[in-house]
Design a protein that fits this description.
alpha/beta; 2 domains; 8 strands; 36% helix; HAD-like domain-containing protein; HAD-like_sf; PGP-like_dom2; HAD-SF_hydro_IA
């Protein structure tokens, strides 16, 4: 892929999604859902339907899933049984390849520009607080998420994110940016959206970050990468049109240099973004 534009502002903040990016919770959701589908005599997730649901809050409660699954039980019963399965399996979550090393490096990194600003970190995850506690209950995931200060973790049930304004709306990323700026020392220049780099695995999450005016590194699950291969440029611009949010002025342009796709967090190129980890 061609290098990103060089006249973009220096990166001063990095904001991370969690599920399917830092930890393997998406695979655990798939495993739990497949167990229930099998219990009720329905076929397992296809890679295509899974890719469309990944990163969408409460996706297995929605029409897309239920119209496909055609379960012989009411949605409410499926939701109850699904929650029980997740409670059993979420404590088994593990960090994904490259996640801990990347967060460790960024936690001591600085901008390589003359200002030499520290890179500030925040979390913006659609997961709700009770699920977050389960997913981060093992020593490995607890250590991984400890790179984010507690006041810089914005979850799906955070009161500052208006109801019904989850991803692909930009709200959760703008709140995460507020947490970085409210923690800044007085006299310090505020971090602007264009100085933030968002790490996302889902299509909805990329759109949310683009709508927030931020730059994006998209790290899709292999199933998602295959499903959207032909429309990769639309994904990176946030122009998949999966939800009618309006406010199209918030979207990116095709090939505008504000987003790129990499196969895993291990492939992140610090130098490309002017991030110095040598300190």
């Amino acid at each position: 892929m061609a290098p990103l534009e060089t006249d973009l502002p220096a990166i001063r903040g990095c904001i991370f999604d969690m599920d399917g990016l830092l930890i393997n919770s998406e695979d655990i959701i798939t495993l739990s859902t497949n167990q229930l589908l099998q219990k009720y005599g329905r076929p397992a997730f296809t890679p295509s339907i899974r890719a469309q649901l990944m990163g969408v809050p409460d996706s297995t409660n929605g029409d897309l899933f239920h119209n496909w699954a055609r379960l012989p039980i009411p949605r409410e019963q499926f939701a109850r049984e699904s929650s029980e399965q997740m409670r059993l399996h979420f404590p088994d979550c593990k960090p994904l390849p490259g996640a801990e090393k990347l967060l460790s490096n960024l936690s001591r990194a600085r901008s390589s520009t003359s200002s030499g600003d520290r890179i500030e970190l925040a979390l913006a995850s659609s997961t709700k607080s009770h699920s977050y506690e389960l997913k981060t209950s093992s020593p490995e995931t607890k250590r991984l998420l400890s790179f984010f200060q507690s006041d810089r973790r914005v979850l799906g049930d955070d009161a500052r994110v208006r109801q019904g304004r989850g991803k692909p709306a930009p709200d959760i990323y703008l709140v995460a940016l507020q947490t970085l700026n409210s923690a800044a020392d007085s006299g310090e220049k505020v971090i602007l959206p264009g100085e933030c780099l968002v790490f996302e695995d889902s299509v909805a999450g990329v759109e949310a970050a683009r709508r927030a005016g931020m730059r994006v590194v998209w790290v899709p699950h292999p199933d998602v990468a295959v499903e959207y291969q032909a429309r990769q440029k639309d994904v990176l611009a946030g122009r998949m049109g999966m939800n009618e949010l309006g406010d199209d002025w918030q979207l990116g342009e095709i090939d505008d240099g504000w987003a790129e796709q990499i196969p895993s967090l291990e492939h992140f190129d610090y130098e490309k973004y002017g991030i110095d980890v040598s300190s």
